[in-house]
Amino acid sequence: MNSFLVQQDSAPTNPTIVQLSSATRLVVKVGSALIADTETGEIRAAWLDTLIEDVIRFIARGQQVIIVSSGAVAVGSRHIGELDKRLRTGMKHAAAAIGQVQIMRAYEQSLKRRGFGVGEVLLSSEDLDDQQRRLNNRGTLQQLFQVGAVPVINENDTTATTGICVGDNDRLAARVAQMVDAGFLIVLSDVDGLFTEDPHGNPLARLVTEVRCITPEIEAMAASSPARYGVGGMVTKLIAAKIAMDAGCAMIIAKGSKSYPLTAIERGGPSTRFIPLNQYRGTYDVGTSQFA
Ligand SMILES: Nc1ncnc2c1ncn2[C@@H]1O[C@H](COP(=O)(O)OP(=O)(O)O)[C@@H](O)[C@H]1O
Ligand SMILES: N[C@@H](CCC(=O)OP(=O)(O)O)C(=O)O
């Protein structure tokens, strides 16, 4: 049997409803193009409100939700008049420092309207590599849940340079999911999921709805990002999927640009689901590495 299923017809829905309610803990990763308008760099506050409503609904049913949010550079660039250019490292740090404040303010305002607080957690690669730091971060996240604050994580961009950074929030989110033993990592992006090729390059590319094993064939589908602020494209999302699946966490990639993006996934909207071995209900032949 194939290790992935390609959606063959034009119906924009998944055949299986995703049971997000089954997880105690979820990590939701928000891509730059969702939080910041791609043309103006302005925060998409109305959209953010609908995401937060979804998050609060999950919390109300007893789940813990951690948000990993990109967008600091995209939002900050607008404030330093560099929206149209690829930024040099120093300028990127400045943009991130400015943008991060704006983003957190938007999360805070939206959560406050619903009676919740927000906790900003900025992580570097050392925070994830070092066991003691990982334990400290886990503890902090747990405390935030207890006091009714939703953790919003980003990479500590002002200190991140090549070699000492995670580099993209797909991997960061996967490592956070691993750190907190999340049941689901939901990657909200500007595409419905993994396609057989970059759909922006080939409109005939087909959506892959389910991946049980990241084979070289799957890896060959992924390209990097043509977007101005997106980092890594599908390449880093597949690396993230590997990290998550190895940790027993299912990962979902879905387009998050419309209102209530988590509700859309739960209602069976289009997505790619990466299912780890421990959640797969069929049989797996270790000898042939095949699913049946
Ligand atoms: N096989 C593929 N399937 C879907 N998207 C792909 C693929 N290969 C490359 N991409 C690109 O990846 C982009 C999403 O990644 P990115 O721009 O980094 O978004 P985000 O900000 O959500 O992380 C898509 O817009 C698409 O152009
Ligand atoms: N830490 C960066 C995000 C980098 C990143 O991975 O962006 P994206 O590919 O849009 O998730 C920022 O906040 O601008």
From TrEMBL:
GO MF entry, a single one: glutamate 5-kinase activity
Positions of the Aspartate/glutamate/uridylate kinase domain: 25-254
Enzyme Commission number(s): 2.7.2.11
Sites where the protein binds substrate: 70, 157, 169
Involved pathway(s): Amino-acid biosynthesis; L-proline biosynthesis; L-glutamate 5-semialdehyde from L-glutamate: step 1/2
Alphabetical list of InterPro entries matching this protein: AceGlu_kinase-like_sf, Asp/Glu/Uridylate_kinase, G5K_ProB, Glu/AcGlu_kinase, Glu_5kinase, Glu_5kinase/COase_Synthase, Glutamate_5-kinase_CS
Top EC group: transferase
Annotated residues for binding of ATP: 29, 189-190
Catalytic activity: L-glutamate + ATP = L-glutamyl 5-phosphate + ADP
Residues spanning the membrane: none
Entry keywords, A to Z: Amino-acid biosynthesis, ATP-binding, Cytoplasm, Kinase, Nucleotide-binding, Proline biosynthesis, Transferase
Subcellular location: Cytoplasm
Family membership noted in the UniProt record: Belongs to the glutamate 5-kinase family.
Function: Catalyzes the transfer of a phosphate group to glutamate to form L-glutamate 5-phosphate.
HAMAP family linked to this entry: ProB (MF_00456)
Protein name (record): Glutamate 5-kinase
Organism: Rhizobium calliandrae
Lineage, opening ranks: Bacteria, Pseudomonadati, Pseudomonadota, Alphaproteobacteria, Hyphomicrobiales
